[in-house]
Amino acid sequence: MKVLFVHNNFPAQYRNIAAALARESCFELVAVGGPTSSSMPSVRLIRYALPEADVSRTHPFARRFDVECRRAEQVLYSISSLATSGFTPDLILAHPGWGETLPLRTIFPKARLLVYCEFFYGPEGRDIGFDPEFPMPGLDGHIGLQLKNATTLLALEDCEMGISPTSWQHSTFPKHYQGKIEVIHEGIDTARMRPNPEARLTLANGLHLRPSDEVVTFVARNLEPLRGYHIFMRALPKILKRRPNAHIIIIGGNGAPYGLAPPTGTTWKSMCLDEVRDQLDLSHVHFVGGVSYEALIATLQVSSAHVYFTYPFVLSWSMLEAMSAGCLVIGSDTAPVREIIRSGENGFLIPFFEVDELAGRVIEALAHPTRFCELRTAARHHIVDHYDAEQVCIPRMRLLLDQGREFASSNRVSPKPARRTSRRMT
User: Fold this and answer.
1) Domain count of the fold of the chain
2) What is the mean pLDDT of residues 60-74?
3) Using one digit for the tens of pLDDT, what is the confidence trace for 84-105?
4) Whether residue 173 is found in the same domain as residue 263
5) How far is Cα 368 from Cα 280, in angstroms, rounded to an integer?
6) Which ranges constitute the DSSP H helices of 221-277?
7) Domain assignment of residue 310, yes or no
8) Distance CA 320, CA 329 (A)
9) Per the domain annotation, does 414 fall within a domain?
10) Which of 9, 29, 293, 331 lies at a CB distance of 3.0 to 4.6 Å from 43, suitable for a disulfide?
């Protein structure tokens, strides 16, 4: 069976299923991705280039779609060459969020297309307008928000099926599409991400930490309000005043945020730190940036309390990984988190804007670590039972892929190579 993955940052959400299929000789795997894509064993990777483009003359409403079309053009040339070489996929797994799915049906009309339905943008009940500190955009902003869904809607028309990682993310999509979207998480490696009472973490400054130390952890792709970074930072003065021996480990970068961009010339990291800097012993606050997976494992294994806050948006892998590692997760009482955490049973939920309540719960966790052993155990059991990659998520994906075999081969029409236009898009 021939499988094509299309994702600008491959392997991303397809890492686990691609690795599983690569172990079986009956699959021929090819991936198409952008410059940041990474190779995997037994997966042929085709990287496309994305030339810089000046979209200043494009209408502001259409600028995102302009860039998505340029990306689609590069994918078109890549898969056309792939088709000419004789590779015709039986199944395509693709993320529609950057325009890469636009040419897939044209070149491979008979392939079974499964698209990754990560999130559907909307003005109510989601990230936009959730935080009163950062007001909703005006009418232009609302239109721009709707247009973020353009390539996803086109992909949903083209595909046989969509896949959402959580039930809440599934619920963000229009009801008339929800019937063709399955809920299957990509899965957590619970064998690696597990409790370890002998764990040791050494920071760049030489500090050594163990599970017996008071350690508060916070993890985000990038430090920004959408992931509750501002709320967390405002809780730190009270936490460190009551628990002066605690160490705060903050993992996350300063790249392009999912949510609102910071004012020009600054970062959310520095802005939120500056707000409380004079109230903190900064020798106990450790910003470690992005870390390797092994370092993430060690960090979570020594954690006394892990804080995960988010607007109603895509659920982070890191929260599930923290639970798998046996952390006491103190999460925001928002829809994506409520789907996983039952407060008082396998973690705690705190109203998103209640800084003092968050601080109080963290202080309690640091002061009475043995009080919450059952919650930590329950958290890991929940992830193992429902989100383990090898035992739960990959087998469910395989069932979907096996259904695709009936689409394979002899009755399919030939793929259609694309001609390069003499006048390239600029």
Assistant:
1) 2
2) 94
3) 999 999 999 999 999 999 999 9
4) no
5) 23
6) 229-242, 268-276
7) yes
8) 9
9) no
10) 29
- Please, where are the H alpha helices in 159-301? 167-171, 175-178, 229-242, 268-276, 293-301
Backbone φ, ψ for residue 152 (5° rounding): -65, -40
- Domain harbouring 144, CATH code: 3.40.50.2000
Amino acid at 283: S
Give the predicted TM-score (pTM) of the model.
0.92
Smallest CA-to-CA distance from 330 within 253, 247, 231, 241 is with 231
Give the C-alpha separation, 169 to 171, whole Å: 5
pLDDT for 178-189, tens place per residue? 999 999 999 999
- With a cut of 60, say whether residue 419 has pLDDT above it: no
- Residue 154 burial (CB count, 10 A): 18
SS3 161: strand
Rg (CA), the chain: 23
Burial class from Cβ neighbours inside 10 Å (0-12, 13-18, 19+) for residue 49 reads exposed
What is the extent of the structural domain holding 50? 2-187+389-407
What is the C-alpha to C-alpha distance for residues 236 and 276, in angstroms, rounded to an integer? 8
Q: Is pLDDT above 70 for 360? A: yes
pLDDT category of residue 139 using cuts at 50, 70 and 90: confident
